[in-house]
Structures
1.
Amino acid sequence: MPGKLKVKIVAGRHLPVMDRASDLTDAFVEVKFGNTTFKTDVYPKSLNPQWNSEWFKFEVDDEELQDEPLQITVLDHDTYSANDAIGKVYIDIDPLLYSEAATVISGWFPIYDTIHGIRGEINVVVKVDLFNDLNRFRQSSCGVKFFCTTSIPKCYRAVVIHGFVEELVVNEDPEYQWIDRIRTPRASNEARQRLISLMSGELQRKIGLKVLEMRGNAVVGYLQCFDLEGESGLVVRAIGTACTLDKLSNTSAFLPACNSPSKEMKEIPFNEDPNPNTYSSGPSTPLKNQTYSFSPSKSYSRQSSSSDTDLSLTPKTGMGSGSAGKEGGPFKTLLRQQTQSALEQREFPFFTLTTFPPGFLVHVGGVVSARSVKLLDRIHNPDEPETRDAWWAEIRQEIKSHAKALGCHAVVGYSESTSICEEVCILSASGTAAVLNPRFLQDGTMEGCLEQRLSWQPGFFSIGSEKGEVDFFPQSQDSSSLLGIEEASPPGCGFCHIPYDELNMPFPAHLTYCYNCRKQKVPDVLFTTIDLPVEAVVVGKGCLIQARLCRLKKKAQAEANATSISNLLPFMEYEVHTQLMNKLKLRGMNALFGLRIQITVGENMLMGLASATGVYLAALPTPGGIQIAGKTPNDGTYEQHISHMQKKINDTIAKNKELYEINPPELPEEIIGSPIPEPRQRSRLLRSQSESSDEVTELDLSHGKKDAFVLEIDDTDAMEDVHSLLTDVPPPSGFYSCNTEIMPGINNWTPEIQMFTAVRVSRLSNINPTNQTLNKNFNDLCENLLKSLYFKLRSMVPCCLCHVNFTVALPEDELVQIAVTAVAITYDKNQALQANKAPTEKSQQRASTDNEEQLQFPLELSSDPLSSQPFSPAKEALEGASSHTGIPAAQRATSLEKASPLAEGYLRHRSVPSGTNSTVSVVKMTPLSFLPGAKITKYLGIINMFFIRETTSLREEGGVSGFLHAFIAEVFAMVRAHVAALGGNAVVSYIMKQCVFMENPNKNQAQCLINVSGDAVIFVRESELEVLPVQPPAAAPQPTGSAGDVTT
Amino acid sequence: MSSDLDVFVGNTTLIDEEVYRLWLDGHSVAEAVARRLRGGVLEREGTSVAVLQSDTRDHYRTFQMLERLLHAPPRLLQQLLFQIPPERQALLVQRYYAFDEALARELLGKKLSKGTKKELDEFDNFKRVFKAVEELRGPLAENIQQLFLLPPPLARDYAAIVFFANSRFETGKRRLQFLSFGDFAACAQSMMGHWSQGALAPEAAEPDGDLPKSFLQDLKELKVLVSDKDLLDQHKSLVCSALRGKISVYNELEANFKALSRALVNVGGKLTHARDVRDFFVDLVEKVIEPCRSDKWSLGDLRLFLTHYTAAPRNLPGFRHQALWERYMAAITACLLRMYHD
């Protein structure tokens, strides 16, 4: 019995009128936890009752504390008939279960009813007294912290990143139980909400146990999803990355920089010194490695036909590691073995993180993905969800083998998703194959030398020291041998170098020497699911790129349906890939980050939507243009048409280069080296599998680059495709957009943010739809939606839409639903202009540095920092994320002295959340892991909420739009209220994971389910930090009691 | 491909001032879109009509959801559903309760308790404010300001409307047409300021909207100034001797003094009878303003006359109501001076 939950019901306000006669309400409250229920007195005849109850105390074990939500029901007392429910509040008390999060939940919560929406508010105070329980074999995992954020949370450092954790629990869906036929919609909705809340709690507890087993203390990149499988049940599943995190204590963060080398070893993680990074200083191991995109070896297994793919890939795996000896010499082999031993203990070396401590990511191999079509059947025994487990295990196995085929041992930026239609389910998993630095992954051996002092703050210009710095110096002599195998990859381009063997490539790719270091091979294009690494050197700005696709499918049942879907998938993937490639070239860019491909299944069609952020990586070659070629070269008018199209394409490319400021430095040809001839490569990328493709490539001249990308127009479909390429309208001036955390090329954010959700449902009204008309409709739908967003947010210009997240659903035959959640962030235009030049300068400069003998470099670091440091700290601050990390380590060291005072001010903690002066405290919401111009001082716990809303008076509530508009606003309000009650003032890494909307206009009914999550935090404005007088950090008040401030 | 469902919800509620104005003016979505198009937004932003329609509908839905809260502005501040910065909240309320003075002028003095008027939002606002403060004690304008979070000038205008509705003054007669809403609002303020109980004791038992009965009753005592022939003569000679050579219309004053004085005193004496109360402004115009105007009194003449006319009774032997007299005349003077124009 290790816990006591205490609840006090203070007051209500703005209650609805429940008694028509008196226009008043006789309200009382039921407080339920587990099987125990308490009641307050009836507060008669008031819409603003003051209950001021005693403390209701629940004595429970911590397993129950983790699983159960606190359920508060507000009722209207009725002497003669049954009491009427006004509404409920579910409070997840998990944040109270670990010491570093919230200590009290106190505030006004909206009273929510699934039929009527928000009906007044109730003021509640919740506390938990936990008794220490030393039982090692307990079933609870209290104390394990959960973060939705897919990077190491600010104010923590990662001691060890253990790896993948997953779990799923299943149950019958109350909506489909027999009892549902006799109970009210309200009762059914509430049963569902409660069940999902319970299941989430259980899932989180189980994942927590796994983390404890791994000796971790936190889950980062926690992603929990619901599969509403209808008749076959309800699945709640979650994945995450287990870590051992250390809270950065205030004291250590304030230690002055210390320069004695011996001391530095220990103190570096805590001081303000931007550490020298050894990845730019190790011996020059000629590691020739890196990337292409997309693993072409995806397989689509239906039902249970999966393991064969594994077999087919095994040889390539062997090849990957075999190449190491040949290519990289003994160092590389050693590294591989190291990494391997660290990773192969794990079943799945996957990481849900998308942003990493510098040095963690050594090489990136490209996107790996796997999909599988399954037929759902009833889950017979909820306690043994083996089928679903087996399905996912299968997919993960496939991902793992794809990664191996790319010469990688790990998968980063990993995520899983499903699409369900009737009894067919597509399971999808994707990630980025990568080679990781083993030292983050091992417990013990390297402890203390890989301390990430602070996780980096992406996006806005922070002081150099604010970014997570990694101490790569080994602490002891034993580990110094490891330094020997440390890769020499320069930070700005190392991750681009191919990890696989260039002579035995797993797929055809066009390799050149890295344009940055010119030592190792890089692919011509790089696709990834992760965020742009901070250290990456980019040219110009990035932009959102989407591929959109519809494919008709015959209506079919069961097996036949699954088969036809399986057959369509490879074609869809292929076309999505082609579209992405074309659109990337059209923008003159060479890499995609944050790639997310969603395939949605409907009754009679499949839809594919891929979103990513295109960028020009300085390390990769300049992309050639797009060359179109006609099939019938003798027809004069046709040729005229073709040349007209060609001109349009060329114009678009030129325009885009200007728009995104892509002016890569011209490099002398001889440095680059000649491209490796790879004639077959182009035919793969051609739209049609035409035999003539090789000759076609010879024809290109117009674009001046020999590796122009050829589009062959052999039929009207192809023509349509080319047209559709050109229909993407660039954002209006002053707008940029991306789907990643940070916008490449913009780094001077100003604090104004606007998070929003937009939902559209459109009817595809064609009587005889074709793939082409559907594609056009779908494309228009997405483009119009984007246009609409730009218009809505026009007052924020100049601004950038970040983390633009599209989700597509096919709720009914002809209906397409698109939901977008993103955040608009303003930036300072003038500073942006200044910073533009930086990456280019730097890439050139670093290139020269890297060409020097790198073995000597570490010694120079400590004794002779580069005196020709061209960047003042102030300027450096302006340059921000992407450019900043391009600065060689030695230069950073020199800028330390000047940078630190500012950094100190920046780090100062303050407990009072801003915005408490107004009646309702302001709560910011953002899908990003940071707030521009602010510092997150505390994580208060995870927010994971599931709501159902239903109406039987759809017209009266303003139709479908009125209904959903109100519901989304209510969800936001409930999230904000919970965050405020925890004492927080923002939600970061906010995501709307599900928005299932169903309507029946004939019956005047509609229902919607929404699932959202995020991390509740306290942030402090940088400007506030700077004006505060310096105070000893030890005395800095902990924001424990701040909830009181919020709940005025 | 038509969009059945189309919503945009920001964590901070977007408020477009232009669309809000169109909504307040009662335009339909289609009309609002047409007006926005005429405003040239398409050219400025390079967007499409469909985008404009979608945007307008979003705003209209938001306003419709907000309207319930705007009916009780303090709830707008406490509610959790819409996150709106305080200055935007103030703007929403202020614009919502702003009214057309011409319409308000028309409605002045009419009954607000019954929904007899056509479905006008502004009329609804008057009714809502009227109902909310009807029974409240204390200064009317302050009550309104607190309950509806209006800026002080707007709250004072609403107070005037409530005051007129309570007392049911006649304002619609043709000879009163030259008076604007502003004139009447100023008069109402002066009357409440000088005559209401709140003006004397803030803890008064009666609402400011009603003139205190005891005060009105006391006004009858002032009739002695015109009914007692001696007093009337002495009053006249005091005023005339003080003004001789100082005003341009001395002769006219001398000729009309008794009629003017009778009118000024009797207006007050009639205030106890509801039917006579209605004629307050009519009487002032008919019996004071019009005669003066036809005699070409300047505003300065009138001011000077009223000052001395009010002060003189102090020196009348046997007149014991000087305090009451001055309280009465303070409002009357303010009203007359405000109303004395073409």
Note: Chain B touches chain A at residues 1-14, 45-48, 50-52, 54-55, 57-58, 61-62, 64-65, 75, 77-83, 85-86 (CB under 8 Å).
2.
Amino acid sequence: MASDSSPINNGPSSPDDSPSSPIGNTFSSPGDAARRNRRRGRSSTPSAFDTPPVHRSRFAAAADATPTPSRSRQRSGGAGRPPVTPTSTDDIPASSEGGDGFDMDDARPTFVWGTNISVEDVNDAIQRFLRDFREASSSQNDDDMLQHLHTEGKYEKLIKQVIEVEGDSLDVDAHDVFEHDPDLYTKMVRYPLEVLAIFDLVLMNMVSRIKPMFEKHIQTRIFNLKSSTTMRNLNPTDIERMVSIKGMIIRCSSIIPEIREAIFRCLVCGNCTDPVAVERGRITEPTICLREECQSRNSMTLLHNRCRFTDKQIVRLQETPDEIPEGGTPHTVSLLMHDKLVDAGKPGDRVEVTGIYRAMSVRIGATQRTVKSLFKTYIDCLHIKKTDKSRMLVDDAMDIDNSEGRNPEEVHFDEERVGQLKELSKQPDIYERLTKSLAPNIWELDDVKKGLLCQLFGGNALKLASGASFRGDINILLVGDPGTSKSQLLQYIHKLSPRGIYTSGRGSSAVGLTAYVTKDPETGETVLESGALVLSDRGICCIDEFDKMSDNARSMLHEVMEQQTVSIAKAGIIASLNARTSVLACANPSGSRYNPRLSVIDNIHLPPTLLSRFDLIYLILDKADEQTDRRLAKHIVSLHFENPESMEQDVMDISTLTDYVSYARKHIHPQLSDEVAEELTRGYVDIRRRGNFPGSSKKVITATPRQLESLIRLSEALARIRFAEWVERRDVMEAFRLLEVAMQQSATDHATGTIDMDLITTGVSASERMRREAMVQATRNIIMEKIQIGGPSMRLLELLEELKQSTGSEVQLTDLKNAVATLASEGFVTMHGESVKRS
Amino acid sequence: MGGPQYDFLSNPLGAVRSTFEKAMASVSDPSSFNSGDWGAMDLFTNFLFDQSHHFQVPVLTPASMRWIKPNTLVRFRGMIQDMLGNEFYVGAYKDGAVWRTNKFMDVSQFPIGPSADTRIWERRLLYCVPVPGLNSWAQISSEAVTDQCMGWTSEQREKRPRAEAECSDMTVSSEEDQGSPSTKKMREGEQPSLASQSRESEIASSSFSLAPVPEGNSLHCLVKVRFCLRRSYEVYDSPESELKLNEIFEFVGILASDPEIQEDNVDNDLSNEFCEDPLRHFPPNKVVPRFHCFVHRKLAAQDFLQNNPIIEPKLDMVKGIREALLRHLTAVLGNDDVAAHFMLLHLLSKVHSRVDSLAVGKLSLNLTCFSKEIVSIFGNQLNVVVKNLMPFTHCIPLTVEYLNTASLAPKKNYDINRLETGALQLAEGSHLIVDETKLEAGTLNSLGVENARLLNNLVEWQKVEYDFKYYKMDMTTDVQLLVLSEGKSNILPADVIVPFRPSAANCSEAVTAEALEAWRWYLATVRQLPHSIESEMQQVVENDLVAARQADRSLNAQDLSRWLTMSRLMSLSFGETSLSLEHWQMVKELDRLRKERLK
């Protein structure tokens, strides 16, 4: 046992001999992992087996180590071998000078093998760091002494917390280390094995000073390195260094118990050995019974239930799609997790991992000594952090209950970026620029793009104390002729939006959109699987070919679009899931081309109830306009013959756009001022008033409260585009304009040319209703004239002829049928097939 | 280099070693070969291409596998089907006082002492398969292999069953390492230096076949390539040689010598766990050879021509070939002139740029009016013609059952850590015929719906979604799609729909081998020509487009875009590189004729 006195000697501990050690010792990696584990995991198992473990550092391993770590300057490294071990130089002088004094009175400083890194220096640096580090505001040297008295160092506080909760690890932010001592940071990244070992040692000493009886061992977990690499860029120079990579977990092995200490029993005399620790990944079975009286050979057997095991798990991490270059396949890397890190992530999680990159040689066969010249690489994991899933960070202001356990780290822009974005937002033409940057290869359609922009930014959601809530999401429907690039717009928004889900109406079923219940094949439990709408919670759900969707599926949308929830009641599960999603749908007119003589409702066969839930309905019509045609022609020609890059200038790239939108959604919450509220009210009343034609009994509804809500959302979104905290008058004006543009297109009654919300809400315009009434009246007159009560019946076609004569205009049979049906419901006539009879 | 002429063909490793020694004489530490090479690469490149010994290198095929000796120089052509990541290995180590190299080898010749000073290098593993759908005429025949001097001439076999073509898959693993320490005296007493790891990645590829290997016909290969992906990349690799999935390469290298290597049948706990590495599930060496690559180059369609004549395409000659080919196509298509014209343009199309998600330049063709009888007469004929003209072709008979069962998209299998190929994992420039005539009414299951969507995406965007289980990745492709259907195909909305109107049943005459070769050359070469448009012509085109749209509102952006694609292809078919008025009008006329048929 004494042989493993210096952990650094028997492992590939120093970076330069690292390649050799895996070769020299086929088991070195496991061994070393094991050893490390021993160091890290179990403080209570020092290698010296005769000393009862009293919270000794994992390095106090020299055979002659004194059990009390409080003796100062006990150096265990033998004179002969390169002195390596950071031995129990544990006693910490109260003043920082004590640390400096170290080198002075020690003639021969201890170095990490093969480097010029002095163990003492590192030791002191770590001590200083743990003791002195304070958050940026308070760490000035001048007042050091003063502060000592008043504030506690960040990590001293943390250590106390850990002790209090009996935790077993201390998370150390590498940024803090860098800030405090860049040199220490460099050493730590370069020689993590050694430095971390010293780190643990120092930490344990501090712990024992704070609470001498603390039994558990506390490990240091470094996270948040200054630079993280991608999996693709890991290369041989990174071996034995600390790296930080991001990726997605694709596989977790089952938990493997790894033996740490074994106890053997002699079969002859029944004597049990002391615990034998793992060495180089192996347990050496004693060949001879140690009892003086027995001394029998090869009599030892392993006592399984007295051995100690730790958890180990192997996890495979794969690159996330955004890191894969074109034409490549994702790379993977293995992670080795120990103890608490086991099961910290599950397949599908995106994580950021800090660990030590290691290589392990491959043997040809179990029994052969020859080694392939190959290595397997893995990352010995120190810290794992789950990162957010979506591209644009989802956490945003449309959320009402911000408090629910959300990780504040999720949305993280560095200050430079924020500055850039803010700079951008100050530009007077930012609204126009954003519009231009949105789907730049789709020409024209500026107003539609502006609407989509508002949708991306969104309004504020509101929840009243009474429980009523108002959505902040803006729903948009695009209706238009085929070939007007609706689908491209959808695709674009889908790519850009947070948690965008793209579905096609034809291929979507109601359950696919909302949620469904399935039986878990393994456990047999019923589980709720989310559909597209639930998955796009806080995002935009893009539904193509909305008109082709089955009615059943569409009816599910009613709840989603206003209440923003999906309710499920089946198979023993009753649930209401959040679906705070904006819906962007597009539909083709039912007759493949839009018929301007029919209303929207007639053109797309959508129920008015659903239609009214869209804030903006755009008609994208293919107008015969030579200007547009020429632009189109130019666009297409340049697409084919020119460098497409050259034609777009002054356009934000997609990542800036994404950042801009996510930053705004997260940080900007515009509010309505009284003045603006006044403006909104006035505008709304104005629109309503337009429906009253002086001297006409016709009452046209030009706006409904739903439109007022839409207006509020739109103005909020517009303010957000400017990064403004208050909605201004111009936002409201623009919102009115947007709404009106959309209304004019979709809700214009083509018979009269006025906006008529009845078209949207009921599907029948006011003028149409008046026409129908006139028709009924005329029919009634004719019937009164021609048919006596109880007299012979009259065929519909005859009636139609009569009607045509009397009104002197073309009358449709369907209109007549409708009129007769109305009369029949009044009890005025009865219908038998084609014949009409007065009752 | 004034040194001795190495025997590159039969003892390439010797050349590697001796150059390494030579290089080590001037440098004290192999880590100085960081840029990847100590000169061996240049030597091989020079030997192969400048001295044109290229054709003498035998080609690795299932047949030649039997007699090719390990550790000799061989060639292998294949498509990169999967990338297995990088492999670290001991690139150079000190044997006593002598530096040796392991580059291009799986096992070191000399035992590496436990304390040895070593350098770790990196190589890339690529799993390569023979180009899917490679037609027999484009293969290097086995005779050519044996006859080393005549390397490229292959027998002219026509119309071999496709299955045969498909079954020679091989994975090439090409290994490019950096400095290989060969026996080299190092200064004694030198400190073991820090592991000098070379950053260049070497691609180590061992070959293995994925599918149950059909009768030795298919040769997969795991290629180990020393690939300077990063820093040293520019040193000896031209930019085009960046290895991408689904690209076709020719690798020159050696077959791994040691067939005894088995994967650790691990008794040791830990390594077992880590062995989730790709090689673990490989069939043994014999089935999937491992191949260390010295040099690799990307292949284009021209490289598959048998007598690759490097001829400057002259206008009148091109025109002549064009006429002949058009005549042939017309004959094959039952004297349907319009269809033949479209067919020609279709065969010349390729995606030449992408604007956002739009693939510009594709021209998928849907020949409609293929009733049962017409299919029986022309379907097969058409298939044969395409096979004879294009190097890689596929045919998918679309049925409900096929849609419901086939795996079209490649899918990552995490159990064996491999990308399982799908029918749509095709090399760039493949030709795909989808025969929809056999499609009947039926119900699609979820896989069927997914497959239909994949096909649709392929036609519309030239993209295939690869399934990586936790996410999907769009891979761009460039596949020419020909759809045969009775009515307009809805699953595959092709760019051009041409109703097929044959007037004669069978009037195709026999074709001479020379003619075929000329046509293949024509199709492969003309496609690659650059193309531009003069500004006056651009004005004319724009005016025409506007006028056409004013006249007919139903024209949309796709129609106009199609015209431009066609006009480009039309002028290319004449071997011209800029659009002329004449060709523009031909295109308009052609489209008018087509429209008339549609009525």
Note: Chain A touches chain B through 84 residues (CB under 8 Å).
